[in-house]
Amino acid sequence: MTERKEVWITGIGLLSSLGEGLDAHWDALNAKRINVDEERFAPYIVHPLAPVSFDTQIPKKGDQRQMEAWQRIGTYAAGLALDSAGIKGNQEILSRTDMVIAAGGGERDATVDMAILNADAQGNSSPGFLNERLMNDLRPTLFLAQLSNLLAGNIAIVHGVCGTSRTFMGEEAASIDAARIALARIEAGQSDIALVGAAHNGERPDLLTLYEFGDFNLTDKFLPVWARENGSGFALGSAGAFLVMESREHAEARGAKPYAKLTKVVADLAQRKQPGAVTKSLEAMWPQLGVVTDNGNLITGATGAEPVTSEERAFLRQHPGFAVRATGTIFGHTLETQFPLGLALAALSISRGTLFPPNDPTGFEVEKSEPPTQIVVMGAGHWQGEGMALVEAAK
Amino acid sequence: MTAPRDKHGRPIVVVTGMGIVTSLGAGKTDNWRKLTAGESGIRTVTRFPIDGLKSTMAGAIDFVTVEPFSSTSLSERLAEMATEEALAQSGIGSKGNFPGPLFLAVAPVETEWPQRLEVGRAIGKREFDYSDMLRVSGGGKYAAFHHRFMFGSVANHLAGTFGTKGSPISLSTACASGATSIQLGVEAIRRGEADAALCVATDGSVNPEAMVRFSLLSALSTQNDPPQAASKPFSKNRDGFVMAEGAGALVLESYQAAMARGAPILGVVTGCGELTDSFHRTRSSPDGKPVIGCMRKTLDDAGMTPDRIDHINAHGTATPENDKMEYLGTAAVFGDRVRQIPVSSNKSMVGHTISAAGAVEAIFSLLTLEHQRIPPTINYEIPDPAIPFDVVGNKARDARVTAVMSNSFGFGGQNASLILTREPA
Prior knowledge:
The structure holds two protein chains of two kinds. By secondary structure, chain A is of the alpha/beta class. Chain A has one domain: Thiolase/Chalcone synthase (Peroxisomal Thiolase, Chain A, domain 1, 3-Layer(aba) Sandwich), CATH 3.40.47.10. Helix content of chain A is 36%, strand content 19%. In chain A, a hairpin with a 5-residue loop joins strand 12 and strand 13. In chain A, helix 3 packs across helix 8 and helix 12 crosses helix 13. Chain A is globular, with a radius of gyration of 21 Å. By secondary structure, chain B is α/β, with parallel strands linked by helices. Chain B has two domains: 372 residues, 3-Layer(aba) Sandwich (Peroxisomal Thiolase, Chain A, domain 1); 36 residues, no CATH class. In chain B, strands 1, 2, 5, 6, 7, 8, 9, 10, 11, 14 and 15 form an eleven-stranded mixed β-sheet that branches. The two termini of chain B are 20 Å apart. At the A-B interface, helix 5, helix 6, helix 7, helix 8 and strand 5 of A face helix 3, helix 4, helix 5, helix 6 and strand 6 of B. Strand 5 of chain A pairs antiparallel with strand 6 of chain B, so a sheet runs across the interface.
């Protein structure tokens, strides 16, 4: 096999509770701003999407109407990434740009669901009752807004990205694997350039319910991720994060500059039957990354859910020289978007010459002044899956 | 001795095990017998009431039961069965220890109506809203619903059961998903990342909401009676696809690894290709370029010219638009031969197995190569003059087949094709 190609991150698109675009995010991170809403879904807490005009990336209202929030967030962030990489509207490149997307989906029409549940509680039990309500009350295009692979579909239609298209599902793990597979393909010459990322709508009562089944929701009062021992859980966050990854030679040929280099992504699925399994899994991945220092930088998607967050802390305590940043505190838990978000912030930090400041009253996160040359990005699923990446300054 | 390589210098990827479940039955033997006999697995739905539905038939797999019932659990069980059959044939690894990654094509997982209704009824009020739902959802009573309805739950279960390595991937490219799972496995082996990959695709989604969703998009046939005759790919009076359930599993290995352990070589995945259509969310581009491009990419990947393809296992969903586009695209790639190459649609018999289709049909393609017999396209009574394919109408045909192209052109514009051969090209 020929030598592995070097892979650069040449475009970043971010839309979240902090705003849109790289400058807005950088400013918000440096100002230590957090946008949470404790009222709308009280006692549950969410990080709501900042106000945005979708028209600027999704010009046709018809396209916007085909989507629900999740696809709009993703299609918008994808557009920002393409702009950032300087390939927006470049049909030649876009026609062969590959996509690897981590997707959830399945947004509900809550009104229809509630009407059906209420009618059921009131004794409507005719055999065709469910069929009739669904046939009559669902808008036909809702399915397209729900389908996991239609985020990729919409990005293709709206932005003209037409290479290969893969959609991975699986919560946080899908997030990590999307980056892993995209990287592997480009390194091996199976792809030259790829759009990689995800979106998440955290303002969904049906998702709150799903996580409530597992008692995973943070309630009543917002607290940073490292301060949730007395009431563990996560606050869902709305966010879209997309990256353009390309081989160095492809980037240089078109005069593109990197934000950073993506050197490595590793992932695993620990069987979480015994306590400590996640810590062990993270320990086993660490040596595969190529970290050269004991005093580095690390961005984690730690969720605040237990027991996994304690296991992550146990791992991090073995690397006490690292300055840690928890995106779960700042952005909430963004599920499929968690890892691309971490990679985006790592690449952004490297390109701006500093790791963004800590946002943690417990002092677990420490200041870091030296310009970062390596940043580890880490994520462990609230339920299953773990992974890590190494993002480095491109030389 | 150097490892055999393909025309592009990559490791050759072979199939050493296959497993399949469809509405025709469980296992390759039953499926192949019935497929080549031109039998249909489509029946009027009995799993739930059909009152109020415009399309009342499906290729539901009712001979497999799961308790408690959910489409997700059924999908998981079908995947398990197919995987067990594939692993047994392959003889790779050992029980609970598969030496490679898992790529699983699966329908997007979501909370389903029986479970949603159960929680709603637990509220104990005649009028309520989401805050009431949330109030009764915690405390652990429904913890099993969280675990079941995670998107990754099926893959995680399969990874645990069969001992696959690393992080399992669950994927969706709509109707191309099964082909995509195979492509991911092929790519991993070609990169040298693994010597073996387990590629599984499953879909057990025949439930009210899924059928309503497709029905509302006017995608389903409404020729409900008789159900076996509803799926009419390439016929003039076709009117949509029939939803069906199924699972397919393939063990892929590098040729070198398979030879080294004396594994059965059932066939070769000689080429894969994909191309995205940006025209419309449910319809393919009228100029056919993405479909044409997809097939050409696949031929290039296989290092083959179109004349090498002896048979096309069509996408052939029986929707009015897409069947026509498939013909036009195929004609553009294969030229004059388009009327002579046998092109059949398994969906005429097993229906559209959606997330499983690409893998189920790849397996039927490999069985075609093994048995040198091409399954028919049934229900072909009124040909469409605009689609002059040789569809192998109604009756299977013995033929010399060395290379099969299997096409999957998905909703949302994700097109994927595979070329399967008996021997390395």
